[in-house]
Inverse folding.
């Protein structure tokens, strides 16, 4: 048999080497994990920026829709007013034509009545 102290020392040295190997392996694994964490963080930041841009775009679209709705309301009012004006003009012309017809007819009747009285 060998010296037990020497064997214990060799065993401890072997454990130290094994522990150093594990530490080295862990250090080798930390780099990819750190890289993955950095990539995940970058992806999350980009997603947040995209989300902010989408929210901004949605707000802009909502404002545009509201503005368009207001403009359409104004257009509707303008068209309604124009229709009222056209209706009033048409009615005025109709009344004017009616007065002319009535006026010319009564003048003719008066002439006829005057000629009947004279005879």
């Amino acid at each position: 048999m060998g010296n037990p102290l020497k064997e214990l020392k060799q065993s401890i040295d072997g454990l130290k080497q094994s522990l150093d190997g594990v530490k080295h392996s862990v250090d080798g694994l930390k780099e990819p994990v750190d890289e993955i964490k950095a990539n995940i963080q970058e992806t999350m930041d980009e997603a947040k920026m995209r989300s902010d841009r989408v929210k901004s775009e949605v707000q802009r679209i909502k404002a545009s829709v509201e503005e368009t709705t207001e403009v359409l309301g104004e257009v509707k009012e303008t068209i309604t007013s124009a229709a009222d004006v056209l209706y009033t003009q048409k009615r005025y012309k109709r009344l004017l034509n009616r007065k002319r017809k009535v006026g010319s007819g009564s003048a003719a009747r008066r002439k006829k009545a005057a000629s009947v009285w004279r005879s």
